[in-house]
Here is the input.
Amino acid sequence: MESITKKPNKAAFASILTAIAASLCCITPILALVAGTSGIAASFLWMEPFRPYLIGLTVLVLGFAWVQKLRPKTKEEIECACDHNEKPSFWQSTSLLLVITIFSSLVLAFPYYSQNFYSQPNKEIVLVSQSNIVKKTFIVEGMTCLGCEAHVESEVNKLDGIISIKASYENSNTLVSYDKTKVDEITIIKAINSTGYKVVLNENRSNN
Here is the structure.
């Protein structure tokens, strides 16, 4: 009987693992940033195609846990509980299941707010001669969410001479305007590649 009472929360703990797996491609860059090893940021990009399935599995596991927890107890379970005169511990409680559900939901939604973990340096307003401004579009492979965009933008913005930058995971590119007297294309490419995402080619949009 003990295994029956513990089953709901065992399933709930499994949902934490599936939720983390679903968002691992966006969690890894944050962990890499904290650890100072941004090169491993794209290590789990191969999991991105499986995200919808992992989300579905997480929902199913949590649903099973709640159904098991809220279903009416059988006569046998009631009698067993009375015989042992035991009060359910926190580890088998509805409160813990609620905490796990909230945590798993936050992890699943992580790609939609992960960009808030990246700092964007304050840029001083500097007058730049129009003839020195270069605009380029870099095709970047590996970005899958808003957090990926913020990661690329944060790294490139650390360079001197960057006027503006806009990364897009949907378009798989990064648009950069920069002062060619202070920074060059190779340096920008290296900054993007340092995040773990890769510049596969670049296209000139404008040279003036």
